[in-house]
Amino acid sequence: MIQEANNIGKSDRSRSEAEKSLDNGFILLTRILGIGVAVILLFIALTVAFRALPAIGQYGLGFLFSSSWNPVKNEYGALPMIYGTIVSSAIALILAVPLGVGTAIFLSEDFLPLPVRTILVFLVELLAAIPSIVYGLWGIYVLIPFIRPIGAFLNTNFGWFPLFSTPLVGPGMLPAGMILGIMTLPIITAISRDSLASLPPELRQASLGLGASRWTTIFRVLVPAAFSGIVGGIMLGLGRAMGETMAATLLIGNSNQLSLSLLAPGNTIASLLANQFAEASGLQVSALMYAGLVLFVLTFIVNILAELVVSRVRAKYN
């Protein structure tokens, strides 16, 4: 009996040591993978920055505030593209965030029978599988004709306002922003729904047990608890909107002239790279790399701001 007890104790100890080794190995692997991601990100940034050095040295920060893009004269400025990137992404978020988060709440709660919700979840996620070129073609043949009367109404009645000072004759900032909103919608919806669905059921039960209504429970308990995941989904959607090429190229008009009007043609940094990089040479390649570096920095700043917002909300509700 004593020998058997000693053998069991040894086996428990050896198993415990094996589990500790496995845990330590897993921790080491995750650290290596995390550092690897950071190294890849740094390598990409340094590569783009190195290729952009000639343009940085030639134009400096004036590149960010100049509206001239003339490869013949080697005059390059990214202000219209920066403006187009920010505005088109802002339009996309204005449309996609309320609709996406609202759809996520609708699909995560018991508003509909489970089979119906399952079908709707599949249809929403199916939107993410549609190629961007299909979105672009749909935008040309369906979206632009549909919103052209809306653009005419805005220009006729609110043409005094700079955002609607030009007529919508075809591709422009507004249709590009709308199609980007449709493209980011499934990302925001799917991640927000998963964040809400993964919350402990005790949160909902405790809130309802204290007398809160269903809507109070959703907006005062569940949404704040899942806020970090919702913001993560929004940031992924914003990243796709800022970096989208084909759909934006087909719908934004590809004009390098700065116009405040949402109905006028514009351009984005991603569209500029897609249109000109294949035929670029000399200083133009460096200027395009400089524009890509600006897009990289813009995305980095947006993610930092999002992290600050999440940290404040966590501090408020913890």
Notes on the protein architecture:
The N and C termini lie far apart (about 55 Å). Strand 1 (about 70) and strand 2 form a beta hairpin. Residues about 10 have low confidence and may be disordered. The protein has helices at about 1-60, 80-110, 115-125, 130-160, 175-195, 200-210, 215-225, 225-245, 245-250, 270-275, 285-315, and strands at about 70, 75. About 30% of the residues are buried. It is mostly helical and about 325 residues long.
The secondary structure category is mainly alpha
State the helicity in percent bands: over 70%
Quote the average pLDDT: 82
What distance lies between the first and last C-alpha atoms, to the nearest angstrom? 53 Å
Number of separate strands: 2
Q: Multimeric state of these chains?
A: single chain
Poorly predicted sequence stretches spanning 5 or more consecutive residues: 8-12
Which strand order do you get reading across the main beta sheet?
1-2
What would the principal axes of the Cα set say about the shape? Answer: globular
